[in-house]
């Protein structure tokens, strides 16, 4: 098999420098992540709108725990969509990765760079569009304007894709950022006018990321390309506290940041991408013979192993360290440091408080984990069965007395209705009631029909050698038949 690399064809191509930017989670995001990781369920907001008729629950089961963890890492609003469109500042403060991305984009915009941003989730691109429309940038005290952007995903028509690519590559284009879906726009696009690539969330298939980065680092690129991989990490020294004062699940003493599902995807599945080592093949299972269910179970097993391993040696870089990653020249680094001090950043203040429904105790997490592990287990105390009324067969004397009971007295000696009364009641219930709109004529016709049926039954019995008294026998009466049928039946007798 022939393999051709860009470096072998174009020796003068500028270098590509990649960094991994680890982003710490704010308390509310960390609480939601730790609950899902510990229980496999999603904690529910009791004040959130719900469909009519649905019961109020504290948590909901999840079919794909690993996917829910990835959604919370990208932004908590993917798991807890807001009822109203939030301001851009609130979106930034609620997510550690978006807070880091906010500083990166504003600084790169001020330095004149252009960015390609790739994500595996189109719903995240929707949130980023809300952020970009509300985030105004500009010099301190000067005019403010939003950052121009374009977007291509799987739902973009072919004509719109071509128009967006031409607009971004135009010499005097005002588009600073290109939002791209890593699956739909990671191949076949020439976007070498951008010199920075941001991979917002890792793709389990490392080749998809390589193809996405190649949209900018390709033949025709004249600048050095910086690649920034965002990775969410959770603070291991913090845990939510419930209203009763109990420390929440996953609390640990000391500092440091623990691995998340994104760390597993990047450090285990994507380890040694160029060599495709055996560890990557076993964890990622890119063998074309395993199903998505097998890949998901493998990833969830890795998440469980990491949770038992304790605190990982992760450090969140400072703003100055991030500026050194982004800057191409010392002048740019000085500009970035000055912007950190001069601008009013949304994440500069204290993080938002943890909502009440995300404050839980260790007992709450253990109970939810037990229910999720065995949802069909019988409860400890089953409700008592409802007592059934006792049924007693009437004796012979009571049965005979009920047959001769007085209707005016309400039945026989045992309180049972008379047999004739019961027979008339069953006949009346089986006979369809006349419509009220039919009037008295319909009632009269019904009575006449009943009389005719009784007469036909008596005639049949007489013709067979019976007597009129046989009508009281327990044998059922024949089903009603058309008048012609009754006439033929009498003639045969």
**What is the H level of CATH, i.e. the homologous superfamily of the domain at 6-46 and 58-256?**
P-loop containing nucleotide triphosphate hydrolases
* Helix fraction bin: 40-55%
Distance between the termini: 98 Å
As residue ranges, the low-confidence spans are 241-254, 277-282, 378-388, 405-422, 435-451, 465-475, 483-493
Integer average pLDDT: 74
Shape: globular
Q: Would you state the CATH class of the domain at 6-46 and 58-256?
A: Alpha Beta
Order of helices and strands: HEHEEHHHEHEEEHEEHEEHHHHHHHHHH
Total E-strand runs: 11
Cα radius of gyration in angstroms:
39 Å
Task: Give the topology.
Layout: H1 6-9, E1 16-24, H2 27-39, E2 41-43, E3 59-61, H3 65-74, H4 88-94, H5 96-111, E4 115-119, H6 122-134, E5 136-137, E6 145-146, E7 149-152, H7 158-169, E8 177-181, E9 196-199, H8 206-213, E10 225-235, E11 257-258, H9 261-269, H10 278-284, H11 292-309, H12 319-326, H13 330-342, H14 362-373, H15 396-403, H16 419-430, H17 440-463, H18 483-492
Parallel strand pairs: 1-10, 4-8, 4-9, 7-8, 9-10
Antiparallel strand pairs: 2-3, 5-6, 10-11
Helix pairs in contact: 2-3, 4-5, 4-6, 12-13
């Amino acid at each position: 098999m022939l393999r051709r690399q860009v470096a072998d064809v174009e020796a003068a191509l500028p270098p590509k420098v990649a960094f991994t930017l680890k982003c710490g989670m704010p308390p509310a995001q960390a609480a939601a992540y730790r609950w899902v990781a510990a229980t496999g369920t999603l904690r529910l907001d009791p004040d959130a709108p719900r469909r009519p008729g649905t019961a109020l629950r504290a948590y909901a089961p999840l079919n794909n725990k690993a996917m829910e963890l990835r959604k919370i890492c990208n932004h908590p609003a993917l798991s807890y969509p807001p009822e109203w469109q939030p301001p851009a500042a609130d979106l930034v403060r609620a997510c550690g990765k978006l807070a880091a991305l906010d500083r990166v984009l504003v600084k790169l915009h001020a330095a004149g760079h252009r960015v390609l941003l790739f994500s595996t989730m189109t719903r995240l691109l929707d949130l980023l569009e809300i952020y970009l429309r509300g985030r105004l940038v500009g010099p301190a005290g000067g005019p403010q304007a939003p950052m121009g952007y374009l977007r291509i995903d799987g739902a973009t028509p072919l004509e719109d894709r071509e128009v967006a690519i031409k607009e971004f590559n135009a010499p005097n284009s005002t588009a600073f950022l290109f939002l791209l879906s890593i699956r739909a726009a990671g191949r076949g696009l020439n976007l070498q006018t951008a010199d920075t690539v941001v991979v917002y969330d890792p793709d389990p298939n490392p080749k998809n990321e390589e193809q996405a980065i190649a949209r900018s680092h390709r033949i025709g690129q004249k600048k050095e390309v910086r690649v920034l991989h965002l990775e969410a990490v959770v603070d291991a020294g913090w845990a939510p506290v419930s209203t009763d004062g109990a420390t929440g699940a996953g609390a640990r003493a000391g500092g440091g940041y623990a691995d998340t599902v994104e760390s597993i995807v990047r450090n285990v599945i994507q380890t040694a991408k160029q060599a495709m080592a055996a560890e990557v093949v076993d964890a990622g299972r890119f063998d074309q013979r395993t199903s998505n269910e097998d890949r998901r179970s493998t990833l969830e097993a890795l998440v469980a192993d990491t949770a038992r391993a304790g605190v990982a040696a992760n450090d969140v870089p400072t703003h100055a360290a991030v500026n050194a990653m982004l800057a191409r020249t010392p002048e740019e680094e000085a500009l970035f440091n000055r912007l950190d001090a001069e601008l009013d950043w949304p994440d500069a203040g204290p993080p938002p408080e943890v909502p009440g429904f995300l404050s839980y105790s260790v007992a709450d997490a253990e109970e939810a984990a037990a229910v999720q592990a065995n949802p069909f287990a019988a409860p400890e105390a089953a409700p008592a069965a409802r007592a059934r009324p006792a049924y007693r067969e009437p004796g012979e004397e009571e049965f005979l007395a009920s047959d001769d009971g007085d209707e005016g007295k309400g039945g026989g000696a045992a309180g049972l209705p008379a047999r004739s009364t019961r027979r008339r009641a069953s006949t009346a219930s089986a006979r369809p009631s006349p419509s009220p709109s039919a009037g008295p004529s319909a009632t009269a016709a019904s009575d006449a029909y009943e009389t005719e049926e009784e007469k036909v039954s008596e005639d049949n019995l007489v013709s067979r050698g019976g007597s009129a008294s046989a009508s009281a026998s327990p044998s059922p009466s024949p089903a009603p038949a058309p008048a012609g049928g009754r006439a033929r039946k009498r003639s045969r007798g």
